[in-house]
Each structure stands twice: as C-alpha cells, then as structure tokens.
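Please predict the structure of the following assembly.
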Amino acid sequence: MVKLIIDNKEIEAEEGKNLLQACLDNNIYIPNLCYLHGMDNPPASCRMCFVEIEGEHKPVTSCTVRVKDGMVVKTDTPDIRQLQRTALQLLLSVHDVDCAHCPANKKCELQRIAKFLKVGLKPKRLELLLKEPEIDDEHPLLDYYPNRCVLCGKCIHVCKTKLGQPLLAFARRGFYTTISFYGEKPASDLNSSCKNCLACVEICPVSAITLKNDSDQIAEA
Amino acid sequence: MNLASNENPDQLFSAIYEEAKRRRNAFKEADVPKIHIGMATCGIASGAIETKNAFETVLAERKIEARIHTVGCIGHCYAEPVVIIDNPGFPPIFYHQVTPGKAKMLVKYFLEKGDPLFEHLLGAMEENDLIPAVTDFPRFRQEKRVVMEKCGLIDPEDIYDYIAEGGYLTLVKALKLPPEDIITEVKNAGLRGRGGAGFPTGKKWELARTAKGQQKIVICNADEGDPGAYMDRTILESNPHLVLEGIAICAYAVGARKAVVYVRAEYPLAVKMVAKAIEQAKDLGLLGKRILGSSFDLEIELFRGSGAFVCGEETALIQSIEGNRGMPIHRPPYPVQNGLEGQPTVINNVKTLASIPHILDKGATLYRETGTEKSPGTAIFSVVGDVVHPGLVEIPMGVSLRTLIFDICGGIPNKKDFKAVQIGGPSGGCLPADFLDTPIDFDSLTQAGAMMGSGGMVVMDEDTCMVDVPRYFLDFTQNESCGKCTFCRIGTRHLLNILERITRGEGHEGDLEQLEHLSEEIKKGSLCGLGKTAPNPIITSLMYFYDEYEAHIKEKRCPAGMCRPLTAYYIDLDKCARGCDACVGSCPVEAIFTTSNRKKGVDQSLCVKCGECVVACPPEYNAVMKVSPPDLAPIVERPVDD
Amino acid sequence: MDNEIKAQEEAMLKDIASQLPAFGKERGSLIPILQMIQENNAYVAPEAIKMVAEHLGIPTCEVYGVATFYNQFRFHPPGRHHIKVCLGTACHIRGGEIILENFERKLEIAHGETTPDREFSLERVACVGCCALAPVAIVDETVHGHVAPSKVEGLMLGFRIEKEKEEREKQENESGQ
C-alpha cells in the first residue's frame, strides 16, 4: 500500500492501482464514461476523468495513471472542471436529449455527470448535430440509437469478455463512428446467443442499445 | 555485444563494389550520349513517359546510338519533365519542360549537329566555358543537398547505381562498430526526428536499445499524409536504397532483426521502388540472414497503409499493421518501450533514416557544421502554392523563410503580393509577411505559431482567404479524425461548421469567441497529436488575420475574394468589346449572355464563380470584374428575347 | 443483364476464395487481404467481408469495422472510369473544388457516387503528392496536372467519342455477323 494525497485528503491504495479506481473507491467522484473496473488498458476516449497531478504541467486522464507513493492529485480545479464541462457539452451536442422517452431516464450517466458539473442538458452555445437514421434496427433482438450513444465502447468490452469474440464493433470513422452489429449470422443464432446475455444492454450508460420495443413500452407507460 | 564478428564485411562488399564500379565505368566511358530522364511521379504526371518514348523513337529512326538512363526526381517540379543530356564533348546539360517535340529537336540538333539549343536549356550541371552553369541560379546555389544529394541523378531501380556512388559503404563501416558507438555518433550529431516533432533520434535509439523485449523492431514511417507534402515519396521513389541503408544501420544499432517500411497507399510508385530495392539488396546479401557474412540478420517488410491520415501517429500506425482500426492509444507506454507485437519499436521518418548514412560517413562534427546549434543538418520542404518555382528544396536549417520563398523559389508569380505561408500542414499554422525573416528550424517555427511538421510549405498570395484556409484544414482533419475521443470527434466538427458558416457569410457575433474557446479546449483535451494540433490553423489565423474574420462576419465580405458565396463576377460594360465572344464559350454553365448592345452580361443566378471568364477575356479588354460582397456587382438584365 | 452481374460476382468470390489461402491466418493479414480484394475487384463486397472473417476466424463485424475505417476500401462497385479529384492544399488554393464541381455537373453525380450506367464514378482525394501541378485530377490511372474547367470538358468529350466509337464498332460487328 502507498499513500497519496487527493484533494488535500490522504488516502491509501495499492501501488500501481488505477488512479481513477482509487479515487472512486475512496468516494471521490470523477466523471467518467468509458472506464470499467478491471480494464487493463482503458481506452481513455471519453476525456472526462481529467485530474491535475503535481509535477505534470498538463491535466491528465486519471484512468491512464497508476498510483505512486506520494502522488499529489487535484480533481476539482477550475481548469479541470472547464475541460470536463466542454467534453460533456460536446457529447450533449450530438445527443438527442429526449429523456422522457428514454429508458435510461434517471439512471443515465450523462444526466448524472450533468448534474455533478452543473451543466444544462441542452447546451445553448453549440449547434445540435444529429445523425440519420435515428435507429439501427438490423439486429433481430436489439435496437441501436446512434443519437444516444456516447461511443464509450463498454458494450464491445463486455461482449468480448463474455464471448471471447464480440458480436459488435466500432465501424466507420470520425464523426460518423458508430457501433455496428454487422454480420451475416443467422437471426436465430444471434437470438440465442444474445437473448440470454444482454450484457451490452445492461452496461450501456445511456440506453443506446435496448431490447426491441423497450422504449415504446416506456413511452406508452 | 558486437553483432558483427566472424567475417570481415569489407571483403564480401568489395566484390559487389567492384562490380558496381565496372558497370558505372562502362556506362560513363561509352562514347555515346547519355540521356537522363526524371521518372518519379511528378515527372510522369508531366509527361515523362511520352518524352522517353519520343526519345526512343527518334533515336531509332535516325539510327543514333545513345543510352537512356531513367532516374528519380531532382526536385525541380516546375521544370518537369526534366532531362539531363550528357553528350560527349559537352558538359552535362539540364533541360526543362522537355515535351516529346522538344525531345525530337534535341536529338536532331544537339545529338546530331552539336547545337545544344540554348533557348531550351536551364544550364550546365558543372562549370565550363561554353554554357552557364545551373549553380548560377540561387535555386541551385543556395540549396545544400545531403539527403537528396543523389535524387534525380541515379536510377532508383538499379542497386549498382547506388553502390557506385558509395552506397552501402556506411553500412559496411557500421557493421564493424559496436552498436553503442553508432548511437553515440547519432546523438552527437544532434539529429532530430524529421517527422515533425523533432525528438532527438539518438535518444530514441538508446531507449529502444536498452528497453526489455524479446526482439526489437524498426519502422520507417512513410505514411506521409500532410496535404501539400511529398518529400518522403520523392526520396523513396528516387533513392530507396538510401532509406534501406539507414534502416539497416538503425536496426543494427538498436538490436532489431525486423523492420517494416510503412508506405502510404496513395504512393504506388514508391511502393514499387521500395519492394524492388528490398529484393535487390537481399539478392546481394545486404539484407536478410547474415548480412555481408556478419551475424547480423535483418528482414525488411513492406506494409502499405490504407488511407488514414491518423496512421502517421505512431500508435495508430502500429494498430493498423496489427490489423486493427487505426485508432491511437494513450501514451505512455511509448512504442519505444512497448510497440509492434508488444516489442520495443523505433519509429523514424523517411528523412530521419535517410540522414543516417551521411552522418555516419562524415561524422557528427561535420554534420553539425550545417544548420543551427539546436537543429543541426538540413530541412527538406516541398514548397508549393503561389511560387514561381515550386518543388522540393533541401536547405540548411536556419535559412530564413524569405530566402527560401523569394530567392530559392523565385517569389510570388503574376506580380501578386505575398500574404502568408502555411507550414506544417493541418497541424501547423499560417505565418504573415512579418515573419518572413524567421529562421527555419524546429524551435523558431514553433515559437512563431507554426511548426516544422514533416515539411509541407504552401505559399499564398493576396488572393488567398485566411478564413478559408483554416476551414480547408479543419475539413481535412475533421474527415481524418479517427473518432475515438470526444474532443476531436465532435469538437473539430463544430469548428468546421462555424468556419463554414463564416465563409458563407452566415457568421454572427460570438463565433470568434466560440472558435477560440473550443480550439483551446480541443488542444488540451484530445487524446493524440492529431486532435491536439487540429486547431492550430485556426489559432494562428485568428492571431494574425483577425480583421479578415471580422470582414466576413460583419461586412459579409471576403477581402481576398476567394469565398465564393461572398463574391460575384460582372462584366464592365465600358471595357467589354462589342461582338467579342471569348468569355461565352468558357463559361461551363452558360451564365454569360449578350446584352442588347452586343456586349456581355453575367446571369448571377446561374454563375458558379469559377473564374474561367476572367482567364478567357482578352488581356487588352480585361473586362471581367470580381467584387465582394456580391451585391456590389451592377445588375445587368438579360434581354427578354434572348 | 442481372444474370451477367450475378455471374461476375460469383467469379469474383471464387477468385477471392482461391487467393485467401496464400495469406496467413493471423490478424496482421487483415489489411493486406482487404487490399488484395480492393485492388483486384475495385470494391469489397459484403460476401467478401464474410469470407475474410471466416478465413481469419474473427467476427464479421470486426472485419467490417476495420474496412470502414480506411479510405481505401469501397463497398460498391465503381464506374468503368474512375475519376479522382485531388483536394490537397495546393490544389485547393488553385481551385480544386471548382474542378470537382465541374465533374459533378458534367456527370450529374456527387462525389462518392457512380453514374447509373456505371460508366463513371467520382471521388475526392486528399493530396496525391503532385502539388506543383495543381490542380490535379486522376482519371483512371493517369494523372492530369493544371486542370481547368475547359480540360474537364475535353476529357469528357474524349470519353464520349471513345464510347461512341466502341458502340459503332459493336454495331458493325453485329451487323457483319
């Protein structure tokens, strides 16, 4: 165990432990979307979990830092908060904010982070950029909502962990990056492997992957 | 550990060298004219194949014996197709823009009658009493060729041509040295990576050498993606063996037995040249197992990129070799610790590796005599855009931008004024005239707000809009963003959208503040170099050309007249010549009509603002006018019966 | 006509199947395999993606994910003549967009599309490295430098004449038989 100071508070953690995890374990919340406990190499793609570490001249993503003895970390500086707010505002600028009709309502990670950072869900400064089509319904069992997705990749990670080989992957590039179920697997096959699993549905922080008709039911309810 | 031990590489190599010399002498001493034709991509695009065919046909027709020697690119792109004729009794002469017609004339007059056709030559390649030498031109005089010394003079498809010029001799020398000594020499030379960031090469090699790993790997990064840059392509097409020799020395120094040349998919000729060079070097035992009898093995593989700019970033490059989406991963660990296949991997740019044989041959002290204290050696730029003599230029570090643009490349054509120079591609910035005396080196350029980058330099005259240029670059980076991280994927898209609105005349208050804010945040928050540097073109243009942004937003005017939605063409009826139809035929959309008094008018609703009519209008009338904002154009009604 | 296309497709897949064994089954072969398919057939068909996935023993969605990441790969058959307009920096400054628009207007398609008769496809590319010749267009494999709208007209006229000649010859051959 080593000692480090986070926001002026001394905590203990195993040497080499993921800094983000160490903070979360000690009830210091750092906004994050793409990190999962136990990941060897976190993707560091959501760009939320920034912290300042003494000795580093720039903010760093805490999910890519390993705990060292005597480390001095700050999670709540104005610079950090501004970066996190910008990242969130960017994500919300491509997000179809329609919480009332979304199964993630009230348990949504974006809502949680927005509340934490005191950011309105409908940022006024950035233009709203939505993609077509609204729903990708090629999967026999699941629907994918590109305008909800934050591209954290957790669904791919859990699918791969469970099956060894994922049934979904990132496709296309840049602004048009998407999650794709592309495959020639017969519907029955997917049905059986996916029906008893649904790990991707459960892990999704924003309900971008849902069981077919799930959201309709909520809307009706 | 000294890898080379048991046999003396000198002895094995001397046989190869003798053979190369024999071939070279046989070629040189043959009492017939030699015609050297530049056949790299630029040359071919300018018609070098047709020129070569013309030479062959005329030589056969007139039964003249001559040798045709295909060479790479000499870097004088404005002069393509370039031909150097070595006619016995004359110094070698450089001819420019040799069309098939000119080729025929050269055979008839120069080879048959001994008239070198002064009106078509640029100069002689060496000092003589008869013909002015090319070294009289600043372009030739002020260049300092180290890496490109043999480009355009030797046949890239013939390994013996390279060896006859001293090629692979440095590898032989290296194999006799302890690897640590080579690293020390490269460190002493102060060589900095030519891929753009300028990291000390020797240090990188040392890190790789001392890193733990089962095997080590060298990657030559030739994924040259900056639009406007083609130095790496030219070197690979013109002197591939120089790069292979550099790779081999690097591999020997760091202890690697495997190397990969990663070439951009868009460079088919470079791919062909490198593949052929690897085969030839293997055949002569200069690559492969037990190189020149030593215990040093090296396999060099060729990997072709698939068209993704981001793969120039080293972690993304490795991802793509491993068969994945080219998405960068967080550093550290750096590839030099944990790279391809999890092994310590040195990734060096083409120009960096191509500098190695020279450094080792001449020594660090001599290498340092060129360039500046902190940026020793030479810099290679592809200078393009609005300059009289575009092309590849190799200059000592420290030369000023003014010297490069105005003296070496001939300045701005068409009597226009210089406006800005864009350096460093999508990651760099635009510098205005105030910065023309900035010395070209890693630190000075970064300080000015641009960056060395990999060496793309685009010169812009007064007609270039400094809002459109960053818009262009953001369009590029936004397209090439891998999409992994939030800031780059979504942030660059917003930057582009705002710039597009401004260039359409739909900008509004707050846009510039938003651009500034987002740019700073994207720089700070992005995962890799692509995102971190993507806002640079915006940041520098806001810094140096703020008034142009304001003109677009507040007056809906493009001062350079480049943003088409903000400009209009009209025909000045006082200047237009009655009955002249020159512009009518040039218009691709039939927007030009004849007025009632047989002059011409532009139908603004049809005009696509391509500017062809300006070119078509005879200079003595010069009647087509361009204005911004577009409502300054007088309205000329189309006659009803037209 | 449909039968002809189907037969072509079958021949293509057969050819791909015969080439695959030459490539190793490790993940690193993925991009070289996709390049082989793209180069031989000018596009990567959905069926081919499936074959590659089977050969390497990886999920189809992963192959699709990699293929859609890179600019080089196309998923629809291109036209008989493929036109690429360079929009590198130098070409942009020298009016590359105007050239692209001219092609779009002449062919009545947008970039990234193929004409309905599959004669032409049009694409914009980032820098082909012939900046001193800007603006540049690559028609089939030939690089054309200093392209002006009038040169676009000339190129298209050349294609039309060639096509008319071909058709005339075809007719003559048929009537001769």
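Confidence is low (pLDDT under 50) at residues 215-221 of chain A. Chain A touches chain B through 34 residues (CB under 8 Å).
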